[in-house]
Amino acid sequence: MKRNRxxxxxxxxxDAEQLLWLANGLAESSSRAEDHFWDQRLxxxxxxxxxxxxxxxxxxxxxxxxxxxxxxxxxxxxxIESRAEGALKSDEQHDxxxxxxxxxxxxxxxxxxxxxxxxxxxxxxVHLKAxxxxxxxxxxxxxFLFSPxxxxxxxxxxxxxxxxxxxxxxxxxxxxxxxxxxPETAQFLSDNRYLLGAVIVPKGAPIxxxxxxDCTREQALDQWRAQGGACxxxxxxxxxxxxxxxxxxxxxxxxxxxxxxxxxxxxxVAFLSTTLDTPAAxxxxxxxxxxxxxxxxxxxxxxxxGGNDVVHGVVWPLLGAEDExxxxxxxxxxxxxxxxxxxxxxxxxxxxxEYCDDCGAPMYPSPEGEAVHAELPEEQAxxxxxxxH
Length: 389
Hints:
Elements: H1 14-27, H2 32-51, H3 55-68, H4 70-85, E1 94-106, H5 118-131, E2 138-146, H6 155-169, E3 190-202, H7 217-232, E4 240-243, E5 247-248, H8 249-275, E6 283-291, E7 295-304, E8 312-317, H9 326-338, E9 343-346, E10 351-352, E11 364-365, E12 371-372, H10 378-381
Parallel strand pairs: 6-9, 6-10
Antiparallel strand pairs: 1-3, 1-4, 1-5, 2-3, 6-7, 7-8, 11-12
Helix pairs in contact: 1-2, 1-3, 1-4, 2-4, 3-4, 4-6, 5-7, 8-9
C-alpha cells in the first residue's frame, strides 16, 4: 500500500525513532554477522510493541520509511510481518507460523463466510498435511471461513490471533471461533475467503512440502487444487471458486489480492454473459485510471458492445510499488482479451476517486468519458441482491 508523507523525523515518537534507527542499520548492513546484530535488536523492539499493542508506533515508522528509504521500509515491514505471524511465543525451541489458505470465489448470490463443520475440518487437515505441510508438522485450524472484513485488523491483532492458534497447534488440535462479534461481510460479485491456521515445528525444521526435496511449490499447488478444492466445495455452495497456494499469512494474503484482480474480471465476464445472455464478444470494456494524489487504481466499466450504458464494473487496485505503467494496462487488456472481450477502450482522463453518495459503490468510466453508476438492465437487476453492483 502506498503511504503519504508524514512530518519531519524529529517529531516522531521515541519508539518509532528506535525502529527507524534499527531498520536503517539493517538496511545498510554489509555482512551476515552485522545482519544478525540488527536482526536480533529489531525483532526485540518489534516484539515489545506487538505485546504492548502499540500499533501506532509500528505504522508511524513504516509511514516515515515509505518515503525516506525503500530498503529500510522493506526490512522493517518484513520484520513486523514475520514477528506478527510468528506468534508471541515464549518457547524458543519451536517455530510457530500463522498460515492462510485463500479461496477466490464468485456468485450471483451471497458468498458464504461461515463456520466449518467438523467433517470438513477433518478433511482439510488431512489434505493440508499431505500436500502443503512438511512431515510431522503440528497444525491448528480455525473452524471458520473468513471474509476479508473478518480477518485480524492490524499487526497487533494478527500477533494475538497467531498466539492463540499457535497454542492450539502445540497439541495438534483446532480452535473454535466465536462468531458473535465478527463484523458483517460486505457482499460483492467476486471476493476472497480465508481458512486460517497455525503450524508448529522444531526450530529450523521444514514447515512446507516444498522445503522437502521431493516437492516443488507448483506440485503442491496442483495437489491442493485437486484435493483441497474438493474439501472447500461444501463451504461455497452456489459459487465458482479457485484456491490459492496456502502459505505464511501475509504472503498468502498478498498473493490472493494479486490473483483476485484478473479473477474478478473473469468472474464479471462470466456473470454478464449469463445474465445478459450475451457472449463475451458482445461486451465492451472501458478502462481508466482513478486518482487521489496519484493513480490508486484502474476501474473497468462494462457495456454491451455498441452501447454506452455501464452495466457492471470492476476495480483493479494498484498494489505495493505498482504504478500506472504500461505493464499494468497490458495485464488488464490481456486478461480482458483472454476472457473473449475484443472491444476495449482505454481512457486517458484523470478521474477522481468517486463513489455513489447513496450506496457507496465505486463510479466506473463510461465510453463517453464520464464516471457513472453501474446499473444492470431493470429486468436482470431484479434477480440480483440489491447491494451488489
